[in-house]
Amino acid sequence: MSAPKPQPATPASRVSALERQLDELYTPQSFLRRATSSMVKARYPVVAVVFLILIALCAIFATQLAPKDPNRVEIFDVLKPPLHYNRDGELEYVLGTDSTGRDVLSRAIYGARISFFVGLAAVGLGGGAGTILGLTAGYVGGRVDDLIMRLADIQLAYPFILFAIMILTILGEGVLNLVLVLGVGQWVTYARIARAETLVQREREYVEAVRALGATEWRIMFGAILPNILTPLIVIASFNVAGVILSEASLSFLGLGVPESVPTWGAMLANSRNQLLSGSWWLAVFPGLAIMLTVVSLNILGDWMRDFMDPRLRGSGQGL
Amino acid sequence: MHKYIIRRLLLTVVVVLGVTLLTFLSIHLAGDPTFFFVSERASAEERAEARRRLGFDRPLHIQYLDFIVNLARGDTGNSLQHRVPAFDVVMERMPATLELTICGFLLSTIVAFPIGVLAATRRGTMTDGTLMLGAMLGQSMPSFWLGLMFILFFAVTLRWMPVSGHVAFIKPLLEGRIDTALANLPDAIRYLLMPTVAVSVYSISRNSRLIRSAVLEVLRQDYVVTARAKGLNERAVMTRHAIRNALIPIVTVLALQFAFLLNGVIVVETVFSWPGVGRLVFDAVNQRDVPLVMTAVVLLSFLFVGANLIADLMYGFLDPRIRLE
Fold this sequence. Notes:
The structure holds 2 protein chains of 2 kinds.
Chain A: H1 12-25, H2 28-42, H3 44-60, H4 62-65, E1 84-85, E2 91-93, H5 104-140, H6 142-157, H7 160-171, H8 175-202, H9 205-212, H10 217-253, H11 265-272, H12 281-309
Antiparallel strand pairs in A: 1-2
Helix pairs in contact in A: 3-5, 3-12, 5-6, 5-8, 5-10, 5-12, 6-8, 7-8, 8-10, 9-10, 10-11, 10-12, 11-12
Chain B: H1 2-29, H2 44-54, H3 60-72, H4 86-121, H5 126-138, H6 143-157, H7 170-174, H8 178-219, H9 222-229, H10 234-271, H11 277-286, H12 290-318
Helix pairs in contact in B: 1-12, 4-5, 4-8, 4-10, 4-12, 5-8, 6-8, 6-10, 8-10, 9-10, 10-12, 11-12
């Protein structure tokens, strides 16, 4: 070891300024500021966020926002096209009505509820379970690792739609069952990434240091390693919500998942199929647009988040 | 290499066994398999008799082992609904599903490749921006919705395309009736067109984004700079140096895409009344047709696992540095 070269004395004022800057990097306020400025610079994510907030508001305040009861059948107002005025000259059905006279706009607003709730809950469930399993597999290794990763292989060999059809037929309809099935469908991605990251982090010096300080294995796994593997997982999760919303729509379209009385975008599309030949385009166009705009917003947000939070993943196609 | 292939094949068997066990347990949890087999008015004795005759009264593990042993012998048992061998019922529908999956796979690969490479070479230009925006949108549309939109536009409004239906091509081909297959071809393509595009738009978008970033990654490498520096023209740099090396990550994703496509196909089949396995499995689960569900799941998961195995083996072929041990 050679002796350190004599450094020119740094003025104390500059040192403290540097320290302040470093501190600022890690305050929540500065994080938010950096996030906002990066988002504004990229432009598209701002539009995406605004749209998602609108959809979220629709989901939360559906009862107040929907002009009509989404399940109310009006046999005299069957298959009215969009912008339908009633006899008094009032705009009654903005997006038209379906084959039983239910208001498409109200159903679409209520549909946001299921998509949002199921998307977030399933990703939370699958992401949480997958992360814990992957972390355990990577940290403990050996038999546990083998068991968890073989389970993951089996799951990957199982065409998801078949799996969902089987489980939903057995468990029956219900939002929670849908969340469960979609959540189980997601865990493998998180488990694989969490495991790979854990294998790297496990060997790092800080883990050694925490262990030397006498931390329990539990504490090392969840206190030391977990925070350091979270970034890629959060990025994946943001794309995953979009994927789950698409899957939920597919399952609803197949008539699986939630009871008929709960309006969902997928089920609206399923009902539209029989009306296509009669030219009732609005039944198929609007729910589909709702799905597409929500999913595209989530994808744009995910892209931005990946670039912002984890530049290593940029362009890797991870999670897309 | 041989060792690796053998190990991978063994692992495949383990995985497929795992899939069958999961399926077996869940469909038995779903309730009495004879429920839909005998008449609703059947007495308890008649029901018990049916259970005994079909072997559902035996302990579950015996039933499962029995299924596996018979499967190894090529006997899948009779479908409860159709009362003919379950294997035949699935194979009757499988060609239609394969037609759609293979066409979707080919289309998504063929289209995504030029898009991805073009976007990468024109990075940061209008072309790149437009292509990637399109890819972002394509990746956000449910395939079944796209199918509905195609029907609405091309079949109902313009009347260019048939609304739904299917003309067999692979099936007569497999049965050796080549004349019939060829005679069917033009119509088969007409019916295939809309479902194929609907199924593959998602994959096209995803693949072209991935191909773009894989090519960009390679273009940053030193050997590409060297190739340019020694005066190779851009075409040679791209084909011989860049694309060949970018293929490795691409191939993996393409194989995974195959599995993904199969999921989409099962849903899109419903939109176009396509006579494939998707609807078959759906009905079979609803009717608790145990042998039929098991057979379909085994065959589909073999397809899945097979695609992944091919991807793994292609790895070593494309990049001799990767040694599969």
